[in-house]
Structure formats: C-alpha cells, structure tokens
Amino acid sequence: MDGDESRIDKVKEPEKRAFTYFMLGGARFLYASTARVLVTKAVSQMCISADALALAQAEFDVGAVPEGTTINVKWRGKPIFIRHRTDAEVGDMAQVPIAQLRDPEMDSDRQPYEKWSVIIGICTHLGCVPIADAGEFTGGFFCPCHGSHYDVSGRIRKGPAPLNMEVPPFKFTDDTTILIG
Predict the structure, then answer these.
(1) Does the reported pTM lie above 0.90?
(2) CA 152, CA 118: separation in Å to the nearest integer?
(3) Quick check: is 125 catalytic?
C-alpha cells in the first residue's frame, strides 16, 4: 500500500473530496457566524442604555429665580446649586485675589455666565452637602460637618476642603432655561 493510494484527493473517489470540502466549508461558516454574533453582542453591551442616556442631561427653567437667590435641583443623583447672582456678588468675585485662594481659579473661568453660578453641591472634603446662603461669605456655601466655607462661585475660602466645588457642564438654551449635562 503506497502513501499515494490512501489520499482522499485521488480521482478515484471524488465524492469523498466533495464531502470533505463541504464539511470544512460548513465548519468555517459556523465559526465565522459564531464569531460575528459574539462580537455584535459584546459591542452592543458597551452602548449606553436609553434610560441612562435620558439621565445624562436635564433642563431647568430659572426664569422665576430672583437675583440673590439659590435654588437646589438634582442632576444624576447629585445636588446642584443654581444661584442668580447680584451685580455686587459678580463684582466681589471678580476682585478676589487669586493668591488668596487654596485652589486658584478665576470666577470667569468657572462660571461662563456672570449672572449665574451653577455648582455641584458636594463638599470636596468628605462629600457632605453644604448649606446654601450660609457661612462667612455673602451668598456662599457652608459645610457644617467640618467647617468649610465657599464663596458664591463655589471656591474654597476657609476650612479643610482641599478643592473648589465642581462645576457641571452647562449652557443656556434660551434666556431662562439651563441645560446641565
């Protein structure tokens, strides 16, 4: 028995060759189909769900908020302080020397709309929620847990907090509506 006689691709038995090609082709098709399904499922799991996407942005009507008043709203489960600042508060924030601040940031860099201050209301010390319109700075925020004082712009001015309060991404969609997120 020669090695050439036992080979499947001999012309003597073409039905075996066709069967072998059919089985290999079918197995490769199944493998490729399974790989495609697995990749599709893996990619689709990385997409954000519709309910999470709905929570990503929130609109708030601030047309009825008088000057010098802070309102509290909720965005992504976090408290947000929206303050309609007075002209005096805007002037005071612009005159604060940067050298006096623990976390130096200009008011104009933090708050793009000078008459409005939008801040995530979480103390940067231990995550407490400060009290609006309290503390040593007029219109500012005070965290009673450990005594951190923030100004109207949310910058740390006194106390153990190491950083300024965070400013969420926001913009005005019209004269009285803020879109956060």
Answers:
(1) no
(2) 10
(3) no
